[in-house]
Amino acid sequence: RARSAEDWWWDRLAPSGSGYRLLQSDSMLLVLPGPGPARARTQRRAARRASRQSPPGPRAAAAKPKATPRPEPEPEPAPAPAPDQGPDAGWGNRVPLEILVHIFGLLVAADGPMPFLGRAARVCRRWQEAASQPALWHTVTLSPPLASRPAKGGVKAEKKLLTSLEWLMPNRFSQLQRLTLIHWKSQVHPVLKLVGESCPRLTFLKLSDCHGVTTDALVMLAKACHQLHSLDLQHSMVESTAVVSFLEEAGPRMRKLWLTYSSQTTAILGALLSSCCPQLQVLEVSAGINRSSTPLQLPVEALQKGCPQLQVLRLLNLMWLPKPSGRGVAPGPGFPTLEELCLASSTCNFVSNEVLGRLLHGSPNLRLLDLRGCARITPTGLYSLPCQELEQLHLGLYGMSDRLTLAKEGSPLLTEKWYHTLRELDLSGQGFSEKDLEQALAAFSGTPGGSYPALCSLNLRGTRVTPSTVSSVVSSCPGLLYLNLESCRCLPRGLKRAYRGREEVQWCLEQLLTTSPSPY
C-alpha cells in the first residue's frame, strides 16, 4: 500500500536508530535529540485504521453490508529501542576530531579565526572541542569596537576587550604566531604583558595606530618571546628609545622591521648601522600620509655593513638625501642578497645614477626595482647595473613630468638588457620619442627560440607610443594581462584607457587593427 505522508515524514526526520524523536503539536513537528518514547509503527497504523472506520449510528446500521474483508496482516514487531547516544548525537558528533579541526583550519586560513571559531564553538560539544584547539588560533587581529572609540567610550571598550583577553590568552593563544593590534589607545601595555606571559611562540607583532607603547613593554616582550623576529610599528606612536631598547635585546634574531619616518627615526637607523641586527632581511621606512619635509640622511655604505643579509629595502615617499661617499673612499660591500629595492616617491627626490650604483653595485640577484618619481635616473645608469634577471621595473613619473626636462632617447637599452625576464614594465610619464619607444618595445617581438616574452603588465600612460607599436607588442605578448594607454597623445580617441584582463587587451588589439587613424 502507498505510504501516508505521516509515515514518510516520520521515517525521514527520525528514522529508527538515529537517536532522534518527534514531538507533534498543533501547528508544528519538532525533531528532538535523544531516543525518548518514540511511537511504534504498529501503533501509528492502528490509529490510522481506527480513524478510517465509520462511527456507530443509524447510518452505519442501515449501511449495506460489505464483502468479507481480507485478513489483516500481522502487525510488525516493534523496533528495538535505540541505544542511548547522548544529547549531541548526529553526523557532527560522528566526524573524527582530527578531520573537523582540519576543516576548521581551512576556513581559518581563508577568513581568520574570528568570528568563525567563536560561533562554531556554540554549535555542539564536539565543535566546541575542535574550535578550542590552540593550533587554530595562530593568527589574530584585535581592535576595539569602532562605535565606542571617541573619548571615554574608547577606554571603556578597550578595558572590556582586555577582560576577555585575560581568559583567551592562556586558554586559546598558547600557539599564537602572528598578532596585530589596531587602534589601541590606552591598554597597550596590559595587552603586551598578557602576550608575553601566554604566547611564547609569537613570531610577528604589528602595532597600527597604537599609543602608549612603553620601553618596558617592548623589552619584556623581547625577553619572553624568544621566536619574535618581525616587528611592524608603522603609523604608531612609539618612542625611539623603546625601539632601540627592543632591538638591542632581540636584534640578533630580527628578520623584518617596518617603521614610519619621523624625527626619531634617525636614532633607530643608527642602531641598525651599528650592526645590532646582522640577520635583518626586510627593512621598510615609509613617510606615511603626513610627509615629512626633513630629509633623511642615510649612509649607504654603513647600512651595507650593518645589514649585510638585507633582501628587501623600501624607502617609500621619503625625501632621501644620501650622504656623499667622498673622494678616495672605497665602495661598500653592497647587498649581495638584495632582491627588491623600492625608492618610490610622489615628488622628485635626490636619487641619481651615482647613488643607485652605490646601492646596487653588489646585487646581482635583484628582481624588483621601483624608481617611481626618481626623475634623475637615466637608461644609461640602469643599463650599467649588475643585475641580469630583473622581473619588475617601475620608472613612472606621476604628476611631475611637466616640470622636468626628460630624456627623449635611451629606452631601447632597458628592453635590450631585460626583455627575456621582464614581467612588469612601467614607463608612464616618460618623455621618450615615438621612434625610441618603437625600438624599445620591438625587443619583445624578437625573442629567440620561438618562445613568448614573459611580459604580463605594461604601463605606457602619458607616453608618445603609436598605434603600430602597441599592436606589435600586444601581438607578440599573448600573456599580457594589463595595458595602460591613458593620456597617450598619439593614439586614436576611444582607446586611451586602461585594459585589464586578456579579453580587454585582445579587444584593444582588434580595434587598433581595424580602426582607421583619426585625429588625436
UniProtKB/TrEMBL annotation:
The keyword Repeat applies. Keywords: Leucine-rich repeat, Repeat, Ubl conjugation pathway. InterPro entries: F-box-like_dom_sf, F-box_dom, FBXL6_F-box, Leu-rich_rpt, Leu-rich_rpt_Cys-con_subtyp, LRR_dom_sf. Residues 41-51 have a biased composition (Basic residues). Residues 94-142 form the F-box domain. Residues 31-91 are annotated as: Disordered. PANTHER family: F-BOX/TPR REPEAT PROTEIN POF3, F-BOX_LRR-REPEAT PROTEIN 6. This is F-box/LRR-repeat protein 6. It comes from Daubentonia madagascariensis.
